[in-house]
Write the structure tokens for this entry.
Amino acid sequence: MGAPVPAYQPRLGLEIEMVVAHAHTGASLPVDAYFSALRAIKKGRGVASQDITLADRCIGLQTATAECGLDNGFNLLETALAPVDDGPDGLSRLAALAHRELADTLQALETDQACVLNASQHPACPRDPDWYAKVCVPRPIYHELREHRGWHHWEGIDAKAQNGANTSVPVEDAIRALNIAIALAPASLALFANSPLESGRDTGLKENRMTVWPRVFGPGRFAGDARLCQYPSRPFDDMADFFHWMFGPGTVTRGLPLQHSYDYKSVPTVLLEGDPCLVDFLRASAWRGRRCDDGLLVELAPHARHFEYSQIGQFLDARLRYRLEILPPLSELMRAWRDGGLESLFAACGAQTYIEARAPGAGFADECLLREAGIAEAHSLLPAPCAMQKGLLANLDEAWRLVDEWGWEALGALREPAMRAGVGDARVKALCAQVLSVARSGLAPADAHWLAYPEFVLASGRSAADRLLDTWNGAGGTVEHRLAALLPYHAAVHPGRYGGV
């Protein structure tokens, strides 16, 4: 613990999830030639890439600035941008990187006769076992989730997509930032709503995507899994309180890695006998379990890396994510957790902490937005969730005052109206206006234009979900006819159309 640790560095990141559709029919489409085409495109631009493979199949490309891969299926792309240093032009550099990656993706998809649909869920995609078996990425973790935990993982195989903003925060502000992101999430649900359709029908919601978690966890084996996607009854007091909620009695630890790894979806793991919570495991000298890859029994000794690895085990509208530069001895970690000193320990270990937004639905500029709004709104759409979260978290006092004025329970109660009616609900609309005001005041004046898209949604009262429904309902006819009718208006357009590249 005596080695110097890096100072806190403000950073911004973005995970772009993209619904893949056939460019002529609009049907959900698993990519095939995409990664080969993408590799060639990047090579042509002088960008080196390394294949990411699983079960002898390419599932992604790693470059210096992004990991271009898949979420849960070959019909759902995910590009995770490397964080950029924040500063006077941080959002602009992040936006330029995002638009460049989107341009490469759209070009590469042409090889598969595919496009990106401007939706946060495919409008008419199967979720049956045959489709799931065909398109699901064969990651080892999914065996645990389905067979051991009993999750209905296939409920999310119809390309449910988000636009995930990542904003670093100092360790001492991390829990307050998390509370704010969770409480004010209804504003993001409403402003970036983009999934009114599922399985070829109007769901009656503007953001149906977020109904997935109760359907995935509800039938599961462990009640604690479902609890970790439900709005907490109160704000978290500090890190100790948060991790007790996430890892304490009533929860069951996920499979734990044999070796240190950040690849939580593919690394070999061990399922512990008796299904303990993580706290009980960490307090033990060792715990017997069975390897997920070969079924062999092993004794797993707890380590601080198991604590760090398990951070992804909750599914609220925002997550606290972190990486420790130095892993402390487990005894020191447990003592700090018990005595309320986790923030100090994290800081001493060089923790880089950030908030991962999960509420904003995926959104991309399309012909409909360009026609209805304009260039500025189209240009701002992709990085807008990052701008909104950055502004809020740069203005913590005002953001928390907003939470306090509305009340924690009242904000939690706005989540359902935000999903159902978006800015069509008067209280949700009022919250959106206040959230945007606080976010705008937290941004430098030169960055305010990155909020153009959500401000347009607020002023017009029309989200992407409304525009998608207009086209779907106006087309009439069969599901196949309606899907094809979406493409001229709701396929993502090349960023060059609005100055993105």
About this structure: The chain has one domain: 11-254+313-498.
